[in-house]
Amino acid sequence: MYGKPHPPVVGFLFLWTTMRQTTLKGVEDILPADIHRWQFLEQQADEVFSRCGYQQIRIPIIEPAQLFVRSIGEQTDIVEKEMYSFTDRGERQICLRPEATASVVRAYLQHQFDGQGGCAQFYYYGPMFRGERPQAGRQRQFHQVGVEAIGSYSPLLDADVVMTALRYIECLGLRRYRLQLNSVGCPEDKTNYAQQLRDFLSGQRSGLCESCVSRLERNVLRVLDCKNSACRQIIASAPHIEHAHCAQCREHFAAVQEMLRSQKAEFEINPYLVRGLDYYTRTVFEIPHGQLGAQNAICAGGRYDNLVAELGGSPAGAVGFAFGMERLLIALESESTAISEKTRPLVYVAGLGVVAMRAVFSIVQEIRAQGVAAVFSYEERSLKSHLKRADKLKANHAVIIGEEELASGTILVRDMRRSIQQSIPSSLLRSALEI
Ligand code: ATP
Ligand code: MG
Predict the structure, then answer these.
(1) End position of a domain, from candidates 283, 313, 334
(2) Distance from the CA of 275 to the center of ligand 2, in angstroms?
(3) Average of pLDDT values for 268-289?
(4) Domain count of the chain?
(5) Is the confidence at residue 93, as pLDDT, over 90?
(6) Which residues lie with the beta carbon below 6 Å from any ligand 1 atom?
(7) Whole-structure pTM value
(8) Domain check: are 310 and 379 in the same one?
(9) Which among 65, 223, 269, 286 is most buried, taking Cβ atoms within 10 Å?
């Protein structure tokens, strides 16, 4: 109805100056049709984690790169190969966060949660960034939902964090998952075990893949993570870390298992589970899902008793986990778990002709002011096209106003489900729409 710019000219200029852009590799849009799935994961997290004593925290997406180098460890896949780091205009080394644990601990110290007594418990969700090879269940921008509990060395905390992860999975409706548990011991145990493992693997050097040969010198525990089948065969007869545990670590791990058994939580011990990040101590766990193929871990976590001190605080015990949200959605789909879309009543208001469209504008504002969702068309349409649109938008009611209605002070209200309509005085609109 109003003057339009000439599309061919605009189109040409547009093409001339720019090409149509797409997302980066391994980075995806989340479109309106899928948003209810994401909201489901977030709402369940709000519900379950707050029920378990956690409060939400929102930490920044960019941090000083050093935060992750110090916490995750220099010789880890994330820091060596996967971090998105750059130098900003002020010559600062910045990094897109590859995970949230280090940021949460940084925030815990920065805002003096360490002085408040008890255990500080946070949960979060949001995007993380790792420069990995994109494949099913592995993206460069992906999302995690997780918890961090900081301030206790008790095995009750390990067990409670694991129970919280299981509660979340149960509330999502997933069934085909397993819980794998191990203990990497304290730093001394880890060092002792690393020596034992190095001695064992040195004798098998020729059978190891190239990466594992270099891991042998630099971070031998990571050999246990290798997916290469020749390496896996060698690893299958490697010594178990439990033989390197000191008495306290053994006792701690036994207590965690006992608490989980008391809740009939099923788990298996995976003696080769060590996790790729340096900061883990004692309990580590992973939750693989049966239907996910190669990238099958939906959750990973564990205890990290040295991280708080490493980042400048007084020593404090801590445990946390993170779920990969994309993988949770794949797992839900593979189990055909229905995620219902929440809908709210919607009124579509159709104006026929320029004058009526202006009246429609006011009516829509009035309906919205009453707290009911209402939409209209910004462009002129035929009645048929209006109704088609109302149908597509799944409107419960269509309100139709033409010149005749304007002249007589009436409106047509159409019940879209039953396909019946009635003409009523416009003053009765609210009661007709039941608002
Ligand atoms: P993986 O062995 O699959 O690389 P990870 O040990 O690197 O996992 P964590 O850093 O512990 O994973 O992250 C916890 C969870 O986040 C993983 O179990 C997984 O569900 C998810 N995750 C990690 N990296 C990615 C990624 N690149 N794309 C999608 N999800 C991911
Ligand atoms: Mg990884």
Answers:
(1) 334
(2) 9
(3) 91
(4) 2
(5) yes
(6) 99, 130, 132, 137-139, 142, 144, 276, 295, 297-300, 322, 324, 326-327
(7) 0.91
(8) no
(9) 223
